[in-house]
Write a structure and sequence with these properties.
This protein has one domain. The chain is an all-alpha fold. It is built from 13 helices and no strands.
């Protein structure tokens, strides 16, 4: 797969997540955050499992259990980072605005290259730094450039961004090591669903505000569960896992952060929402960041080949 195709897959993932952001928030009108996460990713896991089986069969892997056991630690770490990022985001959405959540989640754009350099000691192409900053400023302007005072929900979203950064890095590195991106995505869904169900049970037993919903509440949340599970979850995160095999972690962070851009575009298309002047400037900055990530490596390769 070419780098351009991989980058397009990551842009598609950003577009899908942009559509799914509303579903994450509206679902909590009927059910709690942990049960919502458990149900959507259980559905996502079963939806993608046949493709994981086909992937292993295509690679002539005869025993899926033995291959899973071989990389069980790596797969579990991906799933754990995924669960923690999703859990902090979902709970944080209860206590903050969509504007704040959209911007603060996108902090992973700059966290990824910082972690790569400071923790993993992996040098990053210079272009990643201005591209990350441009994307972050663009997302801030897209939100209107007006963040309310930080509250407890905002703090949870910032923690969520840290785990999303870890997830982006782990997805890239584990995906390249195992060469089983769809299998990895499937297992992270099941790990996340199990951990969320466990958290839901503990919250219910300890009386921490999440209880078993009624049948009517489950039916009310069903459209959000289906969309978030099958499309935003099963399709979106699988595209991320596949695309990240062919591009760097820092570049992937810039590309998938376009979920904020696509959220604004789909809001204009389907909800009649309109951007203010700063929002259009933000869209332009994000577009420039995408071009920098996509075109600069080509220039570097051409230069080195001369």
């Amino acid at each position: 797969m070419s780098r351009t195709t991989a980058n397009l897959l990551l842009l598609c993932a950003g577009a899908i997540w942009g559509m799914g952001f509303v579903a994450q928030q509206t679902a909590m009108d009927d059910i709690g955050p942990m049960l919502f996460i458990a149900l959507r990713f259980l559905l996502a896991g079963f939806a993608v499992a046949p493709f994981a089986y086909a992937e292993m069969k295509r690679k002539n892997i005869t025993s899926m259990p033995s291959e899973i056991m071989r990389f069980k630690g790596s797969f579990f770490l991906v799933g754990l980072a995924f669960f923690l990022g999703m859990a902090f985001q979902q709970v944080g959405l209860i206590g903050t605005s969509v504007t704040n959540a959209g911007f603060l989640t996108a902090l992973y754009v700059i966290m990824v290259p910082i972690i790569m350099v400071s923790v993993l000691r992996v040098a990053q192409p210079f272009i990643i730094w201005p591209a990350s900053i441009l994307a972050l400023v663009g997302i801030y302007l897209l939100s209107g450039g007006d963040l309310a005072s930080l509250n407890s929900g905002d703090i949870l979203i910032i923690i969520c961004a840290l785990f999303w950064a870890a997830h982006v890095i782990l997805t890239g590195r584990v995906g390249q090591k195992t060469d089983l991106p769809v299998t990895m995505a499937t297992l992270q869904f099941f790990v996340t669903s199990f951990l969320a169900l466990l958290s839901f049970g503990l919250a219910s037993v300890l009386g921490l505000g999440e209880s078993l919903p009624s049948a009517n509440q489950l039916v009310g949340a069903l459209p959000e569960i289906l969309f978030a599970g099958l499309i935003a979850g099963g399709l979106g995160f699988t595209l991320q896992a596949v695309g990240q095999r062919y591009t760097s972690e820092s570049a992937a962070a810039v590309l998938i952060s376009t979920e904020s851009l696509f959220a604004a575009l789909f809001g204009a298309m389907f909800l009649g929402e309109r951007l203010q002047g700063l929002g259009y400037i933000g869209c332009g900055l994000i577009f420039v960041a995408i071009l920098m990530v996509e075109l600069m490596p080509r220039k570097s390769e051409a230069t080195s080949a001369q």
